[in-house]
Structure formats: structure tokens, C-alpha cells
Amino acid sequence: MMDWTDRHCRYFHRLLSPHALLYTEMVTAPAVIHGDRARLLGFDPAEQPVALQLGGSDTGELAAAARIGAELGYIEINLNVGCPSDRVQSGRFGACLMREPALVGDCVEAMRDAVAHTRAAVTVKCRIGVDDQDEYAGLAEFVDKVHACGCNVFIVHARKAWLQGLSPKENREVPPLNYERVYRLKREHPQLAIIINGGVTSAAETREHLRHVDGVMLGRTAYHEPYRLAEIDADLFGTSLPDRDEVLARLHPYIEAHLARGDRLQHISRHILGLYQGLPGARAYRRVLSERAHCADAGWEVVEQALAARRGELRSRAA
Ligand SMILES: Cc1cc2nc3c(=O)[nH]c(=O)nc-3n(C[C@H](O)[C@H](O)[C@H](O)COP(=O)(O)O)c2cc1C
């Protein structure tokens, strides 16, 4: 998720969920080709399996970017056909490509050719439609055309996007979710892997969706309440839940290693703010982290102070 997730977030989420497939935020194809690759694409092997999401619609650029990603070890290269921001539309990529299935198909074909020598799969993330595309037929036509060019996995955000008049944030909230349309897509395309996305917040909901589709993608809940990832993983795979404090203890060496390289604590700690969400003391923990982690010399002791503040709040509640 652009501006929210990064490699630090993925490393932390991997500690919570051993089985989830983690995605990068969208990176544009030109940025992959011309940008600072270590910064944009670097990841820790412990994050695997990780998918790289690309934005673009130039077949040559997408092919080159997909090859770079696959050769760096990303196990999946995903094309974004769901982002509705103006910035993205002026570049003719993201959700506006829902209207151009032939072009998306060409992109998929070029990306598949470019990664054929690796094990990376090419997948597409899309919406159920844009603007006046209100019928199932539009989604099915899009998927059929792109599938014909070699894409077998579709992640479908189960709401359409309005390309004019709504902000990206509103486009994640205002158009209603239509899970049934995604379920129908799976029923009528049993040979495809269909992953549903949008509004999923719990293990029970995840289980319900998995009765109809092949996978579930979580966005905002995974970020704001990361422990939900642990709950869902443990529920689906029958494992025991990790202890939150132990998860942090396992993050400790990672934080030290990155601080030693010159990274700032706040760039990692911002992702762990929601770890105790919903538990007593969560507010104290969060407050200490947000107030102290931005200092240039902040280190692991700030996380310990946050944990101590949480325990202090717990004790004062019990007293
Ligand atoms: C801040 C933010 C950034 C996002 N960036 C991306 C992105 O880079 N690529 C993408 O496919 N979706 C992006 N999304 C959309 C989410 O992946 C997801 O499709 C959407 O939020 C609906 O799922 P959710 O209800 O589980 O959050 C972003 C969402 C948010 C809130």
C-alpha cells in the first residue's frame, strides 16, 4: 500500500503470518528501471514469499521491470489495474485500464515472456469495474481477455472505482462492496485462481470467503491491526497464536541491524503501532512509540519504554 507499507512492514508481518503471500506497494515500471533499486526493491529473504506490484501500461517498460523484479527473487509480478488516483490515470495505468483489456493482455504477455526464465508468476489486481461498468459482463470480458494472454490469477477488489469525482480514499469506501460478483467470477471460471479483496477484517470472514474463492487479500486491517494476520494464519493452518511480546523480541535483532545501517527507528516502528490494538494498554504503548521514535538517536530502548508504559497502564487498571 503506497505510503504505508515497505520492506520493514513486510518483515514484521512475516513474523505474524508465516504463510501469507506479501505484496509490495505499487512501484511504477519506470521507477523500477531508472530508480534506486536497492531502496525501491530491496527485501530481506525472510520476507518471502513476496510479490512485486508494478504500475504501468507500456509493454516494453513493464517487461523490463518484471524481469528486474523476477531476477531479484520476487516470486510473483502483479500488475495494478485497480488504483484510481489522478496521478495514475494521467499515466494511463491503474484502474482506468479496466477499460482496456486488450492492452492489459498485451502487458501480461510481455511480462510473462520477460520472466519466463524465472519461477515468477504474472498476476493482475483489478476492480469489479469502473464508472458505469455495473454489470458482471464487463468484469468477465476483462478477465477472459487477460486470461487469454496468459494470466491465471486475478486479485479482485470487490468494488468498482469512479475515475472522476472521488478521491482514492473515497474510492476505497464509497462504492459498495459486491462480493457476489467475485464469487460468480470464480464459479464461471473454475480454472482461474480468484483472490477476493475489500473490507475483510477477521478470520471468520476469511473462512467464509474461502468457501467461494481461492484466496483472500487484506489491506487496511492488516496494516492497522496487524495481529489479525496472526489470527487468520493460525486459524487457517491450525497453529498456535504467537505471543505479541515475543514477536517484538524477534523483531529486535532486525531493528538493531537496520539502525546500525543508518535507518531511523521511526521508519520501522510506525508499522508496529497497532500490534496491541484492542488490548488494554495499547494506547500507552502507541503514545510512547509515536512521541519518541522520531528522535534521530532513538533506538530499541524506545520500544522497551513503550512496552513498559503498556504494562504500567495494565497495572494501574488492575489496581
Ligand atoms: C494507503 C493505501 C495505499 C494503497 N496502495 C495500494 C497499492 O499500492 N496497490 C494496490 O493494489 N492497492 C493499494 N491500496 C488498496 C488496497 O490494496 C486494497 O485494495 C483496498 O484498501 C481494499 O482492501 P481493504 O478493505 O482490505 O483495505 C492501497 C490502500 C491504501 C489505504
Structure in words:
There is one protein chain. β6, α9 and β7 form a beta-alpha-beta unit. It contains 15 helices and seven strands. α9 crosses α11 and α14 runs antiparallel to α15. The protein has 319 residues and is α/β, with parallel strands linked by helices. The site of flavin mononucleotide has 21 residues, from β1 and α10.
Quaternary: single chain
CATH topology of the largest domain: TIM Barrel
Bound molecules: flavin mononucleotide
User: Cα-atom Rg, whole angstroms?
Assistant: 20 Å
Order of helices and strands: HEHHEHEHHEHEHEHEHHHHHH
Spans with pLDDT under 50 lasting ≥5 residues? none
Shape: globular
Strand order of the largest sheet: 1-2-3-4-5-6-7
Task: Note the topology.
Layout: H1 7-16, E1 22-28, H2 29-34, H3 37-41, E2 50-55, H4 59-72, E3 76-81, H5 86-90, H6 101-115, E4 121-127, H7 136-148, E5 153-157, H8 179-188, E6 193-197, H9 203-210, E7 215-217, H10 220-224, H11 227-237, H12 244-260, H13 265-269, H14 282-292, H15 300-318
Parallel strand pairs: 1-2, 2-3, 3-4, 4-5, 5-6, 6-7
Helix pairs in contact: 4-6, 6-7, 9-11, 14-15
Structure summarized in a few sentences:
Helices cover 48% and strands 12% of the residues.
Task: Provide the descriptors you would attach to this structure in a database record.
alpha/beta, binds flavin mononucleotide, seven-stranded parallel beta sheet, TIM Barrel, Four Helix Bundle (Hemerythrin (Met), subunit A), 12% strand, 15 helices, 2 domains, 319 residues
